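pasting for ref. prot 1 ->
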Amino acid sequence: MFGSIFGFAILKPMSKALPERFGGGYFGPKENVCCQSAATAAGSLGLLFSSGFPAAYQLGLLGNDPSADFGRIITFTITCAYVGIFFTMPLRRLYILKLKLTFPSSVATAYTIRSLHVGVNAAEVARKKTWALAISFLISIIWRVTSEYAPGIMWDWHWSWWFYRAGWKWIICAESWGWIWEWTPAFIGVGLLVPMNSSVSFVSGAALAWAIIGPALVTTGKAFGVAMSSQYPGYMNYANMVLDDPVHAPSPEYWMIWPGCMLLLSSSVAEIGANYRTVATAFSVMFQPALARLRRFRGKGGEDGKESVVLNKEDGFYDPVPPEEQTPWWLWVGGLIASSIMTMCVMKYQFGQNAGVTLLAIVFAFIFSLVGAECVGRVSVNPVTTLGNFSQLIFGGISKGSGMAATTNQLNNGLTGMITLAAAEQCSDMLGDLKTTHLLGASPRVQLYAQCVGALVSIFLSSAMYVVFSTAYPCINTLSTTRCSFPAPDVASWRAVSLAVSEPALPIPLSAGITALVLGGMVIVSTIVKYRFVPPAKHHLFPNWNAVGIAFVLGPSNTYPVAMMFGSLIALVWRKRFGGNWLMYGYAVAAGMIAGEGLGGIVNAALEIGKVSGLLYGTSVGCPMGEYCG
């Protein structure tokens, strides 16, 4: 979304001011989507530096500081940049053309781009939509920035804390389990876009995990929380990831990783299995040009390759992209092979990891990327950190039989987890861009080029920014007891899993493993019934298991599912009561809300660096324990 808006603001005037030989000329929606695709890729690698790398430094697994390791950081980031991009291309046909996943943010982006390119002579309807977009965008930016100075009043409503302080003591359990109301324009906007089934599944998964299973675990002694303060009895932290005994004394958040990941994996694999013909067709379509040439060479195919055109439509749905704009098979296959070889070489010669293990990590990265794509396509949330943690656990177990030192095991399973994280992030971002491309009628091949260029920028920019910030704020990479301006909450889970997998036994609580297997089996049976015995018109009656799984792994922080449900209810009433008005303004308002909160977050980060943020000058009124909660 940032790339769409800023790209338009910068490049549209330049296209008019510059002569054509210096980049001037026509700049329309297709050119704009190319710009935003490059911007998306440029931001996709940032998660590496707010999860795996800080955890490695906190555990003493790398050098003294990122400046000393800058070369290794660059080469590892290069390996993470391209694998996920190249194996995305065959998935376009399944997720976008066959399953028609929503990709809410991508729909909003496509709508934004269309609105941005409304000319002075456009219809009155288009101008109204553009105004709706602009107004919701500005309101969301202003709300996000100003709320940082009064977060307990304008952003998060800790309602159960208020009742607790008023004397209703037991209600504090709602606060402990993350049932907080948050005025987040972005997720309310996402709720306006996604189907009601996705929102209901998301909030139902949160209720199942953090209002039923979680409290039951604590009551029966299967999981344990930590008191927030001795001054406030009953106020607990159930999200801590400091695990001295992860099997017998896990936190509820750690316990829930296992059934949550099983839900995500089994749901994605079941969906792929139920649509195996489409998957096979997707790959066959990608390889058809090579097969057609082989047939002509052997004298068994038509001279002009007509057979290939027929096969392209055998799966029963139409691909509107002309052949010259499709991504040729040799491009993505060649890129995947080259990036995989590069990854194996870097991991072998710079980190001492077996090439076979690295290749296996790439295979798992592909599998987990399917999960990320499903999640982003359905509810606009990508649980890549949890997927990376799950990969850590798998490869930590594999590495135990090698006899390597515990610190080497911790470093290698962390790096393989980061490969998974980056691949899943790149894959879901690329599919989202391809959704926008599809809606605007642009070229998938051009988007691949744009993503490759954007990723190249991200390799150096993300690494350099990590060095700059960790130099200015050393607490990012140390286990400091003081408050850090950039706490990076994903680091705690990454560090905890790295320590856990170096233990003699796989750290899965028995109850969590049994629950995971039961839920996984239930998901598979549900998916088989849905596709074998229920007509497509009734598929929306089945739960969206990916949304349920995301609610499990997000931890006891239920602001997102509640806000998304709120947005979906608004959309439901809006459509029923004022259908024409919804068609006029609905998507524009949602797009503005999503983009506005994101830009507001950037402004807040700048204020933090400039030492004028809400942390220094804001109020803690309405926040638990009287501490600033922005």
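and prot 2 ->
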Amino acid sequence: MKKLITAGCVLTLCGLLALLGFYGYAYLSYVPLLGQDSRIRLYNNQGGLIYESTYQKNSEWINLEEVPQTMIDAVISIEDRRFYQHYGLDPIRIAKAVLVNAENGDIVEGGSTITQQLARNLFLTLDQTWSRKFQEAVYAAKLEMHFSKDQILETYLNTIYYGHGVYGIQKAAAFFFGKELDDCTLGEMAMLAGIPNGPSLFSPFISMDNARSRQAVVLQAMVDNEKLSQSEADSAKAQPVLLADFSTQKIMGSSGYYKDAVLAQLKEMGFLDQETLEKGLNVYTYLDPEMQTILQDAVDDHMPDTDQQIAGLILEPFTFNVLAMVGGRDYTTSQYNRALHSTRQVGSTIKPLLYYIALQQGLSPSSTFLSTATQFQISQSVFYAPTNYRNVYPEKEISMINAIGVSDNIYAVKTHLFLGMDLLADGLAAFGIESEEATAAMALGATHFPLIDLAKIYNTFASEGLVDEPSMIRLVTDNAGNILYQRQENPKQLLHRDETLMLSQLLRAPFDIKNLQVMTPSLLGYEPYTTTAAKSGSSDWDSLIAGYNPQMTVVLWSGYDENEKLETNEERRVPKQIWKQIFNTVYPQDSPGPWYTLSPQLEERRVDPISGQPNPAGSLYWFRRTDP
């Protein structure tokens, strides 16, 4: 018994010494309250600040004495009821979390105090690892040793994330309820206190039922913490909650998707490890604020009042800089970036790559195939019967020009089979797109890949055959000015220049009314003021357009996340309308843009675009001088 008591005393003494050493180290290791040294700053291509971690430009700081006591009670009751009694770590919550995590074999409960949450938000990543939890504890102790509880709580309330791009409790009150914080009801304050635990789950804009359920949990925690009576809590639950007009909310401006994409790329590059973060990161991006505004304004002007989504990219030819990006109709409602992560069927936007291959293999813009309803025998047991839009067929030989102009599917499949199906699959592979097994339907875009890959292909067309990886980051430095990363532009000639120039002129055909026959040119009525090359595409679930001139490439997709069919022309024309407005904004009617110049090996011919034969009243397309 005496040995057990002695052992217990030794263990207790060792524990006290370890605790003393832990907090002694924390006392000797100063950290700034707002984590200035470890901030990530993102800049646009004009040098303007678009994002700063831990304290957003769009946050509104509120002093603690201005925060209603009821709001403070709600936050402390639900997040950290012993906040004023501990020194950054709550042994009771930690013991409970350890037991739960041990039972599950993973970190499923954090047990973090308000101080730990602040430490994580200011200095650390969100990785669920034991090492990160230990670092969180160390930073929490440092904060407790150097700042008062009120300073910690004030900073926490001003930097906590509420979803929708909203940081800080004052901004959250205005965003959700259109009010100053001190004008909010008890029920609204309880709802605000509950949102940070899971913004995508408890935001009333996303689910009022979930928000109400979480509100009830907060109110009960306040009762348990003796900050409210049960009758007051019941009365608060019964109060109506009137939300602000969500349609007017643009908290992150229009750059939220771009910002998230850059942060994700920084993580992939290894720049969000703790050692690097402690030195600070200054990230200089290619985001063009004017182009981003033009893109976002066009989206806002043409998106219908439905759940239909949009994704869009603007790239700069020859450099492959990503100038602008939208990943959805509204960043505040969904932060999922469809431009980068959604894999969709690309439809007829694949055809220009097929026709580039055909040109490179010796076909010309005047090469013809018979367009009529056709069943192709692919192998002894495999047959394929594609159809044209609305089952309309010219019933005669048509040229490649006309096939592009009206998006004739029969011509595309015949070209694909004539060349050999592997060539298109190889063409996609050259862009890093590993497609499914080569099939006849691949010629019609029955393959799936993200919009950013389609933008890379079209930007290569726009760059006269040069290819590079689309890039958002130009330069990364630490706070001491040391260069951690600098992009080296290194475009390579992937496609033959002459055939690419021919293709660009061929992609004028979808606007050309002289391609009108039983089928209508696919972009008739959507031609912008300036000269552009473009191709639209569609499936039952997707509508796309991709086009360019020598100065910018614009690629857009629209559809529904749950693969609902696009039933109406109004749904299908959305990306075309947006695309046209973008080009007309950049190049107004009195400001013609640039176009390409013929190489010495090419010549311009005036031809009937349907037959491909010379015609003085025809349209201008480009041919090799050696083409018949």
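The CA atoms of residues 455 and 555 lie 6 Å apart.
Residues 2-28 form the longest helix (27 residues).
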